[in-house]
Amino acid sequence: xxxxxxxxxxxxxxxxxxxxxxxxxxxxxxxxxxxxxxxxxxxxxxxxxxxxxxxxxxxxxxxxxxxxxxxxxxxxxxxxxxxxxxxxxxxxxxxxxxxxxxxxxxxxxxxxxxxxxxxxxxxxxxxxxxxxxxxxxxxxxxxxxxxxxxxxxxxxxxxxxxxxxxxxxxxxxxxxxxxxxxxxxxxxxxxxxxxxxxxxxxxxxxxxxxxxxxxxxxxxxxxxxxxxxxxxxxxxxxxxxxxxxxxxxxxxxxxxxxxxxxxxxxxxxxxxxxxxxxxxxxxxxxxxxxxxxxxxxxxxxxxxxxxxxxxxxxxxxxxxxxxxxxxxxxxxxxxxxxxxxxxxxxxxxxxxxxxxxxxxxxxxxxxxxxxxxxxxxxxxxxxxxxxxxxxxxxxxxxxxxxxxxxxxxxxxxxxxxxxxxxxxxxxxxxxxxxxxxxxxxxxxxxxxxxxxxxxxxxxxxxxxxxxxxxxxxxxxxxxxxxxxxxxxxxxxxxxxxxxxxxxxxxxxxxxxxxxxxxxxxxxxxxxxxxxxxxxxxxxxxxxxxxxxxxxxxxxxxxxxxxxxxxxxx
Length: 569
Description:
By secondary structure, this protein is α/β, with parallel strands linked by helices.
């Protein structure tokens, strides 16, 4: 490192130390502006897309988080200076079109170089960024746009068909901007418009208390809830990530999950606070991941359990020889989004003995991962989600909100600067979830004698498959529309690769016939990730009040809670 770089590194380190000690910190947009000033010519983002466009027609329903993609070199990059410049042009374009503080900007895009500049451009004018799940149907997009009161919708090529279905409805009193080539007639072309606006920072003052973003989650009803966060939440997630994983300017972060995930975004915040490079990778085949780590000199990689499993299996089968790659710089592998089997990490450490390892727990309501984390020094406690994260408090409570004794099972509650402001436009749900500053997570947990927290089961009826939340009510409602289905219940079953899979228990109407093939064919109408992986024909038990007895079903088909079974594997 040259003397100039050393000075810059010291400046950044001193600055970070300073802001950790402050009660009130600067808005997250100023991190980007600082990086543009100090590290302007250094690479900020790389878009790496090894995907070959298939000749067959692939619909949006076939997109999966864990998606096999063949090799094809494709690479773009931007510096911190260009990143900030693009964010400023978008911000000034919004201001010129009458969009300002507290307005909402929806983002419906696959991972690309434009995603984060658009996100920060919205934040720079005091607007709220509203990331949308790329698996949403047209009706779900419309629902979320209306719930969050989105004023501007940014969307990419993959979403033309879905947006067109609802354009007449959502286009009234809303701006629709298309990102990419081949702009449809019902939208305006972002790329051609933004380039004509100033690259100077807009003069908008922001505070910790200003609203910053709305993320979507769903409860047991399956209907998305709009989660409101302020700037303090976003800044705190930056500090949490950097504190847990020690990112420096020299680290390169490989980001594979979609950026609408709080997990992906908040882990990238470690690169933002340190000024390091990040690689946005499309495709999750083992060779694609290892190639990216090697070629881009990645030092930090966040993996979902299935991806880590696939890499290990590919090495065992001889499909990948790690000696053929430059992997010595890879220092940290961390996992989140679902329980991590200890056997997986044991296998990983045999293959990569020098890797640091961390697991992270969090919710969109707690601005993603990090409110609880294992810690790289605690690998002997694999299976636990860990201890309270940087700046977070944790307690385990009974049904009355009273803290239980150590070792007893109760609901996990967290408190800290990253807790959501509220569920937007849902006072009832907010009051049920936020109590005296504590976020009641809906996850059941217990604390061991050393203070490490273990997940035991889920209070909420949610299946986590490959890092994605599946909501049984949605799938159950769909299956009940089949003419031969009398009743149905959907539960999660343990799966070595995905963590859990959705299993549908189906009771058939008297006098009707129905086969597994019939149900699978019927489920083709569902997005791929929502289709049940297993069909079981049996009676669906209900209690006297008519509620499905999910615990009884899990006992029958799992033997124990799914989370506990994964923790013990």
